[in-house]
Specification:
Length: 200
């Protein structure tokens, strides 16, 4: 790929020199695009037509596809071969063709287990409790602005639970972010939206 090679070739240069090289490259790319556009525009027949320029019948032929067919037969395998042979796979695994009804039963059982696991996982979340804890603690702060990190530390909850509690809360909060685009929990501040501004 040309991009990593280009980057490594300008890496030893100073920042200003790197920017100059990049600007020159962009300038050359723009010149190529302009040249191609001019070529296309020059190929149009400009007339006094009220409908605009007239182009030939084959003007867009290279850009349009009338039909397409795709033969996937070489990629397909017989899913249920006639012989019941075992195939050894590296690592000691064995693959054995099975009856279609057995495969469907296995798939149904796997779906039931996955659904059960998801319901158990969802049942262990208590977003309403997290919302109540956050609202209670924020009320004690009497409208003062607090960082997300302070809130998380005071509640002793994992950060993901604090986030979920805040995002699903009926309470409205004003959010402020300080620092870089990818904020740290210490750089995100919030306060109740209904409170009067108070200093921290």
């Amino acid at each position: 790929m040309a991009a990593p090679a280009a980057l490594s070739s300008i890496a030893p240069l100073e920042k200003n020199q790197q920017l100059q090289v990049a600007a020159e490259a962009i300038s050359q790319i723009v010149e190529i695009c302009v040249s191609r556009a001019n070529g296309i525009l020059d190929s149009l027949e400009v007339t006094d037509s009220s409908n605009g320029p007239v182009s030939g019948d084959d003007f867009l032929s290279g850009l349009m596809r009338q039909s397409m067919s795709l033969d996937l037969s070489d990629l397909m395998e017989d899913l249920f071969p006639a012989e019941d042979s075992q195939v050894n796979i590296s690592g000691g695994s064995h693959v054995t063709p099975i009856d279609k009804k057995v495969a469907k039963a296995i798939a149904r059982q796997a779906r039931k287990l996955a659904k059960k696991d998801l319901l158990e996982l969802a049942g262990s979340e208590n977003i309403e409790l997290w919302q109540q804890a956050i609202a209670f603690w924020m009320q004690q702060r009497q409208g003062h602005k607090v960082s997300l990190w302070q809130l998380q530390q005071a509640l002793g909850m994992p950060l993901v639970e604090v986030w979920l509690g805040l995002l699903h809360s009926q309470e409205q909060y004003q959010w402020e972010g300080h620092g870089e685009f990818y904020y740290d929990a210490k750089d995100i501040w919030l306060k109740p939206a209904r409170s009067q501004p108070k200093s921290n």
